[in-house]
Design a protein that fits this description.
single chain, 139 residues, mainly alpha, 7 helices, 79% helix, 0% strand
Length: 139
């Protein structure tokens, strides 16, 4: 095979066009901060409600899983199947906690400031999201 035959077998795709084109969601919503206050309230409220609803559902599943695991470990320890060195567990947990705090401070030093600035700049969106979140928690 020569190079001309190989080139005719393949089609070149311009992937830059995908980056230039906006997604459907971006076309529908656009820049939310430039929308009317009513549209920001509706979008923020709906997103907050959905987030709160998912938070409760996932939280229940996580709580049940964690509770069952702790219960099984306690039963196994009481029956003598396992021996737990609690001083070592406490030491490891303390070390892990310090490491997580250091890493969070290193990677997200201005997270609270950025969130506060976003909420101030998008008051309607942030306020309705919080309200919707609490309504979602109620369901």
């Amino acid at each position: 095979m020569n190079m001309d035959e190989i080139e005719h077998d393949f089609e070149v795709l311009d992937l830059g066009a995908f980056r230039r084109n906006k997604s459907r969601l971006e076309n529908i919503l656009g820049d939310i901060s430039k929308q009317s206050a009513a549209k920001q309230v509706v979008i923020g409220g709906a997103a907050g409600w959905f987030s709160g609803y998912l938070f409760i559902k996932v939280g229940k599943i996580a709580a049940c899983s964690l509770g069952t695991t702790v219960l099984l470990i306690q039963i196994a320890q009481h029956q003598g199947y396992i021996q737990i060195n609690w001083s070592k567990v406490n030491k490891e947990v303390t070390q892990a906690k310090r490491k997580v705090q250091r890493e969070a401070n290193r990677q997200f030093p201005q997270l609270v400031d950025n969130l506060r600035r976003f909420a101030q700049e998008n008051m309607f969106l942030a306020g309705s999201f919080v309200g919707g979140f609490f309504i979602g928690l109620a369901f």
